[in-house]
């Protein structure tokens, strides 16, 4: 027991090494650009001020998004997806696998769960003792189930998922912007040092190396950022890109694809003014209610959550939602404790009354 605790402690310490590497490179780039280039190499005061102003804007946004990607805790399933004491006792005491599966099926009927395991069974995490919501996966590094898990990123030492995927995308975009700005502004002085127009000194090494590092990181980040932009457009996670989610009707790689515009809104939010700001904006409280009197008295009510709240996401075929009794009764899904406030705020509810 003590040995395993020691190993876990060492693992947690070593997991911060990639973050320290990135932090060290960024701090060195700040010193090299601000001091060695702008203060010691540039002669024009106007050029110095312009470069420093734009650089610090890029630097602050990069640090802000990186901080949010690292220290935003991954979201885990709420209490509604945990087995009750009686259900847990019944599940653990049952030795027949088929009966255990049936127990999970009965519990899942009260929850907005549409995806299944590869075998067709309800997805259940034995470690966390929870029924996995759609797009939720267990992270062996974080040792918890993560809502809409994309991947565990060692460079941020965190799981990238529902709570911080927007921050991760902005981190990639501002990293690219940071590298592009450095490369474009350093380029002419890089050439001057290279051909010997500027005197050799301490600044030469920093400027030359700054150019190489900026270009190298730009190329690698562009591939990663382009891939995630493709994932956002298709409304897939990295895990879903490799293994299509399985529904009752079978695997469907486009099961959560509801159109590019809504796919982007699920990540960045509906307010475009906040798309480039690292604040959580996906969940809104806006409601659009079409009254029964406007469309007839014999209509049927279909409820869906416009952007998703981590536990449930709109499906490509919305008609399947009407078969889930939970989605026909809003009260059954709302949490009663304080921890549910974020979830209830994340539900933009639309009511459609069809003839």
From TrEMBL:
Pfam families: DHHC
Name of the top EC class for this enzyme: transferase
Gene name linked to the record: zdhhc15b
Regions that span the bilayer: 12-33, 49-67, 167-191, 203-227
A single cellular component GO annotation: Golgi membrane
Organism taxonomic ancestry: Eukaryota, Metazoa, Chordata, Craniata, Vertebrata
Entry text on domains: The DHHC domain is required for palmitoyltransferase activity.
Subcellular location field: Membrane
Keyword set, alphabetical order: Acyltransferase, Membrane, Transferase, Transmembrane, Transmembrane helix
Organism: Takifugu rubripes
Main localization, broad class: membrane
Residues of the Palmitoyltransferase DHHC domain: 122-242
GO MF annotation terms: protein-cysteine S-palmitoyltransferase activity; zinc ion binding
Name of the protein: Palmitoyltransferase
Protein family per UniProt: Belongs to the DHHC palmitoyltransferase family.
Membrane topology reported for the UniProt record: Multi-pass membrane protein
InterPro entries per the UniProt record, alphabetical: Palmitoyltrfase_DHHC, PFA4/ZDH16/20/ERF2-like
Top-level lineage group: Eukaryota
E.C. no: 2.3.1.225
Substrates-to-products reaction catalysed: L-cysteinyl-[protein] + hexadecanoyl-CoA = S-hexadecanoyl-L-cysteinyl-[protein] + CoA
